Amino acid sequence: MANSRTNQLVPGISRLSRSKVFSKRAAYKIAKEAKPKVTKEKKAAAPKKPSTTKDLVNALTQKKKTLVTRSVALEPKTVRKAQRATPLRKSITPGTVLILLAGRFRGKRVVFLKQLSSGLLLVTGPFKINGIPLRRVNQAYVIATSTKVDLAGYKVDAKFNDAYFKKEAQAKMKGTEEEFFGKDAQKKEHPAHKIADQKVVDEKVVAAVAKVPYLASYLASSFALSNGQAPHTLKF
Fold first, then answer.
1. CB contact at 8 A, 207 and 199
2. With bands split at pLDDT 50, 70 and 90, how would you rate the model's confidence at 2?
3. Residue 111: its H or E element
4. Which of 24, 90, 111, 138 is the most buried (most CB within 10 A)?
5. Peptide bond before residue 126 is cis, with ω within 30 degrees of 0
6. Is the pLDDT of residue 1 over 50?
7. Phi and psi dihedrals of 124, rounded to 5?
8. How crowded is the C-beta side of 189, counted as CA atoms within 13 Å?
9. pLDDT tens track for 132-145
10. If you ran DSSP here, which 8-state letter would residue 92 be given?
11. What is the rounded average pLDDT of the residues 107-113?
């Protein structure tokens, strides 16, 4: 039961809020006395000594401090982290059929040939079967299947390295209107030596594929998941 004589509902709990108590006290109506500001007396600044010609001559002729050379020669910082070759996954061996997960040919199946010095994988469609040329792919973006092509006795040419896939330098555009709208654009032809190299590689791989029934149609088909299929439950 609330106490009618006091502003407390129960001992320790006020009936009025803080803002209500403030308005009842009317403390905001009491004029505050303005305290006089104390001004400090400023000291008079000392008069500056006028500069003379002698001071200017001394400033110009003053000797500069000579730099002290180091007695110990600086050595370049050594990098402790060694550049190690990227290890190849155990499930990927020469002839393994891989499924590409990224890039222009994602979902396509390719045949693994070898690992390059950069750690990338050298693969081929082959081009005659599914239109995928010799390419470099990252092993992080492939699925290794249990299907393998027998490439025993076939050695990949040493010229297929990272420098082989380096793009040629293109001439800078002049910024003309014709270049912007592509009026003078010429179709870039694939180098003839790379076409010949593709035929040589395809000849060996296609011959090995032809020995296994339905393997050519398997490489030509694309990988996709249907409704209700979970990739972690599939056996590739």
1. no
2. very low
3. strand 109-115
4. 111
5. yes
6. no
7. -145, 155
8. 4
9. 999 999 999 999 99
10. -
11. 94
Task: Say if CB 236 and CB 143 are below 8 A apart.
Answer: yes
pLDDT, tens digit, 9 for 90 and up, residues 170-227: 666 666 766 666 655 667 777 888 899 999 999 999 999 999 999 999 999 999 888 8
What is the Cα 233 distance to its own chain's centre? Answer: 31
Cα(150)–Cα(230) distance, integer angstroms: 30
Strand order across the 142-148 sheet: 135-137, 121-124, 109-115, 96-100, 142-148
Measured distance CA(179)–CA(127) in Å, rounded: 33
End-to-end CA distance of the chain: give it in Å, rounded: 79
Q: CA-CA distance, 156 to 122, in Å (whole number)?
A: 10
pTM for this entry: 0.60
Query: Looking at the predicted structure, is the pLDDT value of residue 123 above 90?
Result: yes
Residue with tokens 């050594």: 78
Structure tokens at 38: 């104390």
Other Cβ atoms closer than 10 A to 143: 15
Q: Are 209 and 216 in contact (CB under 8 A)?
A: yes
Residue with tokens 């290890």: 87
SS3 137: strand
